[in-house]
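Sharing a chain and its predicted structure for anyone who wants a worked example. Both blocks are below, sequence first, tokens second.
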Amino acid sequence: MEKRESNNVDASYTGGEIKRFSELRGKLLETEAQESLDILLDFSRKLGGGYSVEAESGRDVVNLYDLRSGRVNPFAFIVNKRDILFYIRGPAFKHFGFDFGIDGLREVFVEGDLNKNNKGEITIRVGDPSDAEKVIMEVLEPYLGSEKGQSAARQLARKDVEAAMDAFDRYSQTGEQSEIFRHFGDPRDYWVRSSRDRENRVYPSKPLVGYLLDKTELNGGWGQKADAAARLHNSGFIIFDQHDEPVPVPERYEHLISGAERIRLCALNYFIEPAREKHLKTVTIRAGGLASAMGLKNAFPNICQALGGEKLQQLAKVPPPAISEPNPSSSTTFTYQLGSKSEADTMDQASTTISTSATNLILYGPPGTGKTFATAAEAVRLCGEPVPQDRAELMAVYERLVAAGRIEFVTFHQSMSYEDFVEGRQPMTGADGDGEAESAGFRLETVHGVFRRIAKRAETSRGRSSGDDMIRLEGRQVFKMSIGEANNPEDAHLFEEAIEGGYTLLGFDDIDWSDEKYASREAIFEACKDHRDGGGDIDARSGWVQMPFRFRNWVRQGDIVIVSKGNQQFRAIGEFVGDYEFKPRPGGGYAHRRAVRWLWVDRDGVPVSEIYSRGFMQQSIYLLYDSELNIPALERYMNSQRTDGGDEPDHFVLIIDEINRANISRVFGELITLLEADQRLNQPNAVRVRLPYSGDEFGVPSNLHILGTMNTADRSIALLDTALRRRFTFREMMPDASILEDAGQKCGIDLPRLLTTINKRIEYLYDREHQIGHAYFTACRSQADVDEVMRHKVIPLLAEYFFEDWAKIAAVLGDLEAHEGPIAGGFLKRAILNPPPGLEDGDAVARFRWQVRSVDEGFDYSKLVAA
């Protein structure tokens, strides 16, 4: 390859790699060359490898070079705001295309002799810098050698196609642009669907492309790459027939894009860019929805692979999406975080990482659409863990995170209160200190609810608690220790001293137990008796003997110590790293110590129930039972404040099932304010409030995510608290009949059609929020299974929806007939009720008895499925 020398080249793009791109943007920020650089970088990516883009900030110039042939050949061009200069040499100049009928073109200047020296300059001036890329593509199309270049050259920009649709609407209403559109007859076969919300969903393909190319004659199909439908198809638009159904793409045409490339372009045109235009923060693409729009059958693996791949992220300039489970399937959803168009244009490869901002997400939809099913995968993803595609593997990861306390699951109900969710007062009995006597009666104490517990874990997490180098409990003993009396202010300095000094302390007699003879309990007992001039009431089982013996002889280096705060809380976790030492203190007491590496400290304390199944006993040191320990949770605490592997904390997820079934304002209280992402702790607008029961100042940490589910049949989304709706992102999950294709084949019933028909009728008679979810039928393996679901789940649910109006239920099931006689339907039977004696002429309205067909009679699905 020819070596190019330049003294003022500030950055280059070669072979798919951007070098010093961010620094270059800063230099060009106030120059016209910035737009030029963006244009050529995007264009060179589309062309593929073998091209070089160089920017010269001093001259406000950007060059694109073709290096494939080993030298700067066959063209180089300079873009400066509106002027595109093509420097052509060699045979390419003879074959250069001069069909400059391109929208956006203003002037063309040609210098050079085509017949003599085969080189020259062609300058094209465009009216708008945004048209430059399109002009380059059109000019180079006849002569670019690579197929990638040809593919890029023939693409139509989405904004231009939508502008052509606007022009066609004006023509239909006022006759404007008739010099183009009047030449095209009535459309027949090939239509294209708009990617925007319009009164007209589809438009004829040929007039649109004719308008864009300023041509009045062209083919409308896709037999050739220059035909109207082919151009639109290769630009990521979906071709439809006059009935608004996707037209199958003929496989025999090699010039038509297919597979992942087409999926990516359609996702970009019909989902991502429209959402970005509406200034939405996120957009969710369901694999089944995209497949239906594109007319694809059984292509979910390809769709899911394309939607989750890096190429779409680079094309759309978005971070990696949040992917739901199961994956791949028609119900798999891909949720992308969106920036503005300008943010997307300036996004470089390094920014394609998962956002660490707090997520407040509600999955909503009719019953049986897999909302709760999807929370497992969503929660695992929000915790920053890889999401396995296999359901069993996914649930294993999910259960591990639940055991570690990083995921909590709670179901809201009508009796749910603030005291259950945040904090409240509960009666407690017995002593809570380290004293010997227990108090009589009971007292009211503040008890944390599920939200405060998981918020506490998130707030005290300082670093990643998972990884190959995490500290584990395997092979270690775990001891509970008291350092002074937690409720005695005079002992508070002991805990602080131990934490600062890197050791733990034990009281009792100031006797040096370092001598080897004290490996015996009897020797310690005798020493204690001598220390007391005969021992008094002391025996070998008393704490004065037991505690020093355990501290000196049971503890090994590497064992774990948990420091209590009363009997119901703990406030520190450490690793013993030294042997027994005797260090007398000036005032006496607490002379026994061992060096400790403190792993986790929280002076406020955390409930013992987080890591141990029972409360602590009033003994200064004792061994905890392994069977009672929550090992995953304890290991998480042990590792959660490590900073040697990075300072990013663990992520935590609170799943709230049926979030709309409780009184939201009553349950959340002041949390409504604290949930906003920018008002979380450590954020620019962080807010803390003082809680009513404990009096503590409380804020919601940024590494705590809220994931809710909401059944729209119970309560409409419109009835939710407005403040809550503003603070949450809502992702709709509707019935997906395509999931039932396999189950339908096993049952011998067209379950997708059955579900679709039922839901269309429910939507007509009631609303879309009360449809039947696909999950009701996913486990069916025979017609008997379907009968069970219909008899015991679907029909009773319909009866509840329609308040026992059996005529409407019959209409949904296809059993209603337009007469007042008996009916023998596929699911229901109707008989005429005769009036009691004496009322024969009193009521002319016919009355009926509706019955569900018996098990022996069975159900007949023929009319419902054939509808």
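Comments welcome. The chain has a mean pLDDT of 76.
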